[in-house]
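Write out the 3D structure for:
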Amino acid sequence: MIRERMLALRNSRLHTELDDLSTQITANVIRLGWVTGSSILCTYLQTGSEVRTGQIVDWALSMGKKVIVPVTIKSEKRMFFSELRNSKLELERGTFGIPEPKPEFRRPVPLEKADLVLVPGVAWDVHGYRVGYGGGYYDRSLNSLQKRIRTIGLAYEFQIIGDVPRTKHDRRVDKLVTETRTVDITD
């Protein structure tokens, strides 16, 4: 119910408004020490009305950072991560319509190598928990790691609600960044 209502709200916004809000979110993200100090940044590539990540990808690449992005293997209900070197040439629509590296540009990188993971969500609470699309791909990927990697959720301010429902498998993020604030969940 929360997922459907928030998706309807998010999808009702004008693309230009979401572009502007995403630009503000990007500015807030790239000011964070965790981000500027990272060498390998893992990020989702947006689809539909999600917070846009293209500017973050372009900034990271221009700063000489390695960027890794998810590739979904739907039949196995898992993701692997691939280095992205050129967002203009290397991407195509993949599983669920989400941009992914074309097969010839897939360069697998273990998620454990990342310094930081930017996480998408449909709805969030200020405790760092999220409602995703329901597949559990991010939670499974993050929970399978041998080491803890810092995580930042990206959200429009209107996506933050009271408490979101959670299970023992849900993984909260360490920070949540919107167009107006950064919420520190853990230090």
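DSSP finds five helices and eleven strands in the chain.
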